[in-house]
Amino acid sequence: MPAAERFFCADAARTRGDPIAGTAPRGFVWILVEYRRAWPTDGFDGLDLEATIKALVSTAAQAARARILLVRRPGRRRHEGPDKWAVLRHEHSGVHRQQWGTWSRDEDLAQIAAALAVPGHAGGPPVLLICTHGRHDPCCALRGRPVARALADRWPEDVWECTHVGGDRFAANLVVVPDGVYYGGLDADSSVTTIEEHLSDRIHPDHLRGYTDLLPPQQAAVAAALRRFGPAGRTDYTIAETTREGDHWRILLTGRSPHPHCVEVELQAHRSPPCRLTCRGPAASSVIVYEPTSVRTL
């Protein structure tokens, strides 16, 4: 009897044509902890750190609603000097702030809790995070590592591999922080093109999962506007109004010139048919999909 064919969630999602827009997790603050050894399945939570330090960082992160990601440089398992940590913020005003430090002992990570209590420095180049967390989901490693290598060849100081960011079936996943922009379904070639455009403030809808400061239907509305009217900068569209009647959503976007001044996007929410969403989760489940039904200028 032939062996069962191995299941890969990213392959299955592409075969099904799973919609990618409106799938970015909400978030404004990211904590990065460089860790060059093997990553535990549950990331930072699984590290063997001094208990009080680990609790301090976790509690501070929870209070700030921050996500902790382990990171490492692509293809560079060892280098001289201490590891890095960072606190990256996307403020409601649109200002981006970064604070970086180093650690060589567990006690040094207490700096992260202190950094969460201060604003940090405005500006700085964006950080490109590519999920390669194979212990969490094989697709993340198989699809993420070629993307990380391709991007690191072009932007070596800005690229990090990272632990689980969500949406395994959309691997390779890339998060630009503190911008708070999620991309998915990337390969080596498309990732370079996507980031070239992103850094030129031209965001396209093809690989866009969403902006982390927006709700899922708002993310889907922005992607629909980009698809209808062409690429735009990260802040060229803002949410002016959001209304809901049952499963029907109406989102008004205000556009900055040369984009349309006012765009109305209507979306219908529905649940996808149950299916297997991750490589390691055999149970079938469904997700909410926001399907644009109308995109027009007012």
Cα distance spanning the termini: 62 Å
* Mean pLDDT over the full residue set: 94
Strand content: 25-35%
Strand order of the largest sheet: 5-4-3-1-2-7-6-8-9-10
> Helices and strands: which structural class?
alpha+beta
Quantity of strands, as a count: 16
The CATH architecture name of the largest domain reads 3-Layer(aba) Sandwich
In CATH's first tier, which class of the largest domain applies?
Answer: Alpha Beta
DSSP helix fraction: 10-25%
For CATH, the homologous superfamily of the largest domain is named as: Glutaredoxin
Number of domains: 2
Order of helices and strands: HEHEEEHEEHEEEHEHEEEEEE
Using the coordinates shown, work out and report the CATH topology of the largest domain. Answer: Glutaredoxin
Question: What is the count of helical runs?
Answer: 6
Would you mind describing this structure in some detail?
- With 298 residues, this protein is an alpha+beta fold.
- The chain folds into 2 domains: 171 residues, Glutaredoxin, CATH 3.40.30; 83 residues, Roll (Nuclear Transport Factor 2, Chain: A), CATH 3.10.450.
- 23% of the residues lie in helices and 31% in strands.
- It is built from 6 helices and 16 strands.
- The strands form 3 sheets. Strands 5-4-3-1-2-7-6-8-9-10 form a 10-stranded mixed sheet.
- β3 and β4 form a beta hairpin.
- α4 crosses α5.
- The longest helix is centred in the middle third of the chain and has 17 residues.
- It is globular and about 55 Å long.
- The N and C termini lie far apart (62 Å).
- The model has no long low-confidence stretch (mean pLDDT 94).
